[in-house]
Design goal:
Distance between the termini: 11 Å
Shape: globular
CATH topology: Rossmann fold
CATH architecture: 3-Layer(aba) Sandwich
Radius of gyration: 18 Å
Number of domains: 1
Number of helices: 7
CATH class: Alpha Beta
Oligomer: single chain
Length: 221
């Protein structure tokens, strides 16, 4: 059983990466062969969907993007994975540009123009998405509707099989808030959330990694 973890954050050790790595620990504990990929690695040069439509050509290779760049090997790994977990911070109400590009290249080839009800899935998989955000809990639900926007983005992975969404809110952005123009943000509150809430999010991520692998085992049979 293979589990692939995609970090869509520019920070290799930030909140998103920490949660993904904790989920990866859970997956490994559940018996999966795990791999972690940073999409913002400087060695990776890729774009989103190039609208070449090679994935829709009759007689062509179906279900996977064939555009040749640094993302193609990662897409191959994603297609072969039994468990796929993506993570991203929320920037202006959306996942990062790099994760969006990955999602375009992963999902569009699976859209079946001959039968929209049946995606071109070469290998069913269990998946999940973790989103982290500076946005506090109350604002996430009452003002920004982030929970709706994030669910719409994450639910696209559902074409490959069962998928889940985890949200980590009110996250700690800066190591030293005094250096930044952020007068409306209470640094003391952020520190308290990071100390008391974030460890619970890490536990939740670990449990998520374990749970996905157990579901994948059931699918594999």
């Amino acid at each position: 059983m293979k589990a692939l973890f995609i970090n869509g954050s520019p920070r290799k050790n930030g909140n998103t990466a920490q949660l993904l790595k904790k989920a990866m620990e859970g997956a490994k504990e559940a018996g999966a062969e795990v791999e972690f990929i940073n999409l913002y690695d400087r060695s990776l040069n890729y774009k989103g969907c190039m609208s070449c439509f090679a994935c829709k050509v009759k007689g062509g290779r179906k279900g996977i993007c064939s555009f040749k760049d640094d993302l193609q090997p990662i897409l191959e790994k994603a297609m072969e994975a039994d468990v796929l977990m993506c993570g991203s911070p929320v920037y202006t109400a959306y996942p990062t540009a790099n994760l969006r590009a990955f999602m375009e290249r992963l999902i569009f080839p699976a859209v079946n123009y001959s039968d929209f009800r049946h995606p071109l899935v070469n290998k069913p998989k269990v998946s999940a998405t973790i989103y982290t955000m500076n946005c506090p809990n109350k604002m996430m639900y009452r003002a920004n509707d982030y929970h709706i926007t994030m669910d719409v983005n994450a639910s696209q992975l559902g074409m490959f099989g069962p998928t889940e969404l985890m949200l980590s809110y009110d996250t700690y952005q800066f190591n030293d808030y005094s250096r930044y123009d952020a007068a409306q943000i209470d640094a003391g509150h952020k520190a308290e959330v990071h100390e008391k809430r974030f460890p619970k999010d890490l536990e939740q991520a670990y449990a998520l990694g374990c749970r996905l692998c157990e579901r994948a085992k059931e699918m594999i049979g």
